């Protein structure tokens, strides 16, 4: 009843033809499990300038602060320049800046429970403003109005200090997200004769041996400064340089540096322009010069960039849904982020400096998450150049990888080895099959094959020998087997399209390896031993780190055969058995289960876990079983319970845009269940009208007649004015432009989309 009421309220709210920019709310996901940040960032920007409310925790205790900002925290510790949007693990929070007013300048953040115990400050949400590319807040203890904006490679702060009080900044190089003693390997500060401040930090965090450089210019001259080292028990300090007994040094290096920067009393706000580089200080300085202007000019340019990016779609929807969908699109356009300097140089997986030839290098690849819907969405709403540059970045990353394979989970060019699979492969294949070019297809296919045959990675040696990953040789083996099989299918698809039939046949055979982990006796995908026996004991609801499955269990992973759902359903006993098992998953009674020990397990509807990616395609699988009305009902249930336009409005980590991309596609009425198939499974729309302004100038319009509370089912569908009786549309049909029209009604139409020829792609019955 509560779910239906929530959906009814969302659909009965005033309908808006929304301006994309004005309808984005960056606070969505900053509470609960969303792990998003509210600060300033340009589309795919290198700089994410955002408040950190508390960085005092260590590693796993920091889970709720993975993005630096937590909506329910009472204080702001400072403003740092790098953040992930929605990650389930974290790092970054580089180069924290905090304004301080008056004569006393504390160099420690203090205790959030003890007001004015350090440089952190209390704040009130009523004083906060967050818009795409802009953030502002009043710091109550300092009496400072703080504003942030960002360009592609720069961030700009603006601080209005109270009249009659001296203005200071604290620059804390000790602060970091997911911090721990020893994380800061080295850092440095250097004050140039013209007042420019440069520096660097090397950390051993999620990405080991990560280096980042900065350059800062101020709109007012410094009247004094101190570069302080708080490191204790330094065994060897070297010899004394200039400035004995003083911290007013021209430069300082160490593992625990904090700077005090003095400006005296100011008659106008202080602007602080910061640029980053993964390459060197010269790169940071060049990036600083690459975007001209001060705060207002950078803010205006970024607003225009966001207006254009969000203008990829025009929505007519109830106000809460319009806000949720435009914010979802916004969150989907934050990564993969620019990681190359203005001169084309970037730091690669080998920790060496390289140059991107004719394109911008990008990083922040959360590929286990984003291959599903985030990258397919970018292919629709961004110019082809965006996806082409992503693919070129993946290929060059493989070129410079010490292991010779594509990225797994990479940021700032550095590999973390997080999650499983070789999911750069479907990103590349999907792009190629959609006609996106501008990259070397032969080099791309070579990189895909190299990644899929690299024996030392993730049990691939055993997978190639046995046809599955054995659990007594490799953890999370059941998940790896089915995910590898899907990735293999995408290699085959691209190879066949390129005329590489030998490669296609090899990987088409491997695409069926999911069968080797499916247990027909229990009806679940299970982990097998090297002997061939399934591992026992077996509990399909168990979720444990490093067990048979990756952030999930048998209920979620038994549906991951997106390349051949028809064959999976036959193995399960047919369509009726598959529908019954899907219903059992959603309706499962979890009252006796406890998943509090497991991170990222959130947004449960029975054993369907929307807060994590393995479940994201599952509601659409009723289409594959000839029961699309069940997909429509489940989507209504999921949207009503898992999303809302509030800080706690995401049921799970946004995972660099994947949770948001799911909602955006679903809001339009279709979803890419199988990237690489060039098809989208039809669900039900949550908008009255949406116009996709396609990159080539054409328009694809979605219309939902009869959209009203309680009209949760699709009565009929028409494409370009002709009845559409199948439960999918193709990528080419969208890119050609036209109109997809739904008629919504209260009761399900149990005849529409049921024929076998009407169902979405399965390789067993593919209609090329």
From TrEMBL:
Organism of origin: Sphingomonas aerophila
Protein name, as recorded: Putative alpha-1,2-mannosidase
Q: Start and end of every Glycosyl hydrolase family domain?
A: 284-745
A Gene Ontology cellular-component term: cytosol
Check the UniProt entry and state the signal peptide residues, or none.
1-18
UniProt superkingdom? Bacteria
In this chain the Glycosyl hydrolase family 92 N-terminal domain maps to 24-277
Question: Entry's NCBIfam families?
Answer: aman2_put
Keyword Acyltransferase in the entry? The reply is: no
SUPFAM superfamilies reported in the protein's UniProt record: Six-hairpin glycosidases
Keyword annotations: Signal
């Amino acid at each position: 009843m509560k779910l239906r009421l929530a959906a009814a309220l969302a659909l009965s709210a005033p309908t808006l033809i929304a301006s994309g920019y004005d309808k984005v709310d960056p606070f969505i996901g900053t509470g609960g499990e969303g792990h998003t940040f509210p600060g300033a960032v340009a589309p795919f920007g290198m700089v994410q300038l955002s408040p950190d409310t508390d960085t005092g925790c260590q590693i796993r205790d920091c889970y709720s602060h993975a993005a630096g900002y937590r909506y329910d925290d009472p204080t702001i510790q400072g403003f740092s320049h790098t953040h992930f949007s929605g990650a389930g693990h974290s790092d970054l929070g580089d180069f924290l800046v905090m304004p301080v007013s008056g004569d006393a300048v504390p160099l420690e953040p203090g205790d959030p429970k003890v007001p004015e115990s350090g440089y952190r400050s209390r704040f009130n949400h009523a004083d906060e403003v967050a818009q795409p590319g802009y953030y502002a807040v009043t710091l109550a203890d300092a009496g400072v109005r703080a504003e942030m904006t960002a360009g592609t490679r720069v961030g700009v702060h603006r601080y209005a200090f109270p009249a009659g009080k001296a203005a200071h900044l604290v620059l804390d190089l000790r602060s970091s997200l997911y911090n721990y003693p020893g994380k800061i390997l080295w850092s440095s500060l250097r004050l140039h004769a013209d007042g420019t401040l440069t520096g660097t930090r090397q950390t051993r965090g999620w990405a080991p041996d990560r280096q980042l450089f900065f350059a800062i210019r101020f709109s007012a001259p410094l009247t004094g400064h101190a570069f302080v080292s708080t490191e204790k028990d330094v065994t060897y300090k070297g010899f004394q340089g200039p400035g004995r007994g003083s911290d007013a040094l021209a430069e300082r290096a160490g593992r625990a540096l904090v700077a005090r920067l003095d400006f005296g009393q100011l008659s106008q706000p202080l602007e602080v322009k910061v640029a980053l580089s993964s390459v060197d200080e010269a790169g940071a300085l060049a990036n600083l010069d690459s975007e001209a202007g001060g705060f207002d000019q950078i803010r205006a340019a970024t607003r225009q960039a966001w207006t254009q990016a969000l203008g990829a779609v025009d929505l007519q929807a109830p106000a809460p849904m319009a806000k949720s969908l435009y914010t979802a699109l916004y969150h989907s356009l934050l990564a993969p982020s620019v990681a190359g300097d203005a001169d084309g140089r970037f730091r690669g997986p080998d920790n060496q400096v390289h140059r991107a030839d004719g394109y911008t290098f990008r990083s922040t690849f959360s590929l286990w998450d984003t291959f599903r819907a985030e990258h397919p969405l970018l292919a629709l709403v961004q110019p082809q150049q965006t996806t082409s540059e992503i693919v070129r970045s993946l290929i060059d990353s493989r070129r410079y990888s010490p292991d010779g394979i594509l990225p797994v989970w990479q940021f700032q060019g550095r590999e973390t080895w997080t999650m499983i699979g070789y999911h750069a492969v479907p990103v590349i294949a999907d792009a190629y099959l959609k006609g996106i070019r501008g990259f070397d297809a032969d080099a791309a296919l070579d990189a895909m094959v190299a990644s899929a045959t690299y024996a030392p990675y993730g049990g691939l040696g055993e997978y190639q020998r046995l046809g599955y990953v054995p659990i007594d040789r490799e953890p999370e083996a059941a998940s790896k087997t089915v995910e590898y099989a899907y990735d293999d299918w995408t290699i085959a698809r691209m190879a066949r399209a390129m005329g590489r039939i030998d490669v296609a046949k090899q990987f088409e055979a491997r695409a069926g390896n999911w069968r080797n982990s499916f247990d027909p006796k229990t009806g679940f995908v299970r982990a097998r031993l090297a002997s061939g026996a399934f591992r026992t004991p077996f509990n399909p609801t168990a979720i444990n780190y490093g067990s048979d499955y990756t952030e999930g269990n048998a209920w979620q992973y038994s549906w991951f055969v997106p390349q051949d759902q028809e064959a999976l359903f036959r193995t399960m006993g047919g369509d009726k058995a598959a529908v019954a098992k899907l219903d059992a998953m959603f309706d499962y009674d979890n009252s006796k289960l406890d998943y509090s020990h497991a991170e990222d397990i959130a947004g449960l509807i029975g054993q369907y876990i929307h807060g994590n990616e393995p479940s994201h395609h599952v509601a659409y699988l009723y289409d594959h079983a000839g029961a699309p009305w069940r997909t429509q009902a489940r989507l209504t249930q999921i949207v009503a319970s898992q999303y809302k336009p509030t800080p706690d409005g995401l049921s799970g980590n946004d995972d660099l845009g994947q949770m948001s991309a799911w909602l955006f596609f679903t809001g339009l009425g279709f979803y890419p269940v199988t990237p690489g198939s060039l098809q989208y499974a039809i669900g039900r729309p949550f908008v009255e009208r949406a116009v996709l302004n396609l990159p080539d100038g054409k328009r694809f319009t979605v219309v939902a007649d009869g959209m009203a509370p309680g009209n949760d089912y699709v009565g009929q569908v028409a494409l370009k004015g002709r009845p559409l009786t199948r439960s999918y549309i193709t990528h080419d049909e969208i890119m050609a432009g036209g109109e997809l029209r739904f008629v919504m009604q209260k009761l399900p139409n149990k005849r529409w989309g049921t024929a076998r020829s009407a169902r979405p792609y399965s390789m067993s019955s593919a209609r090329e």
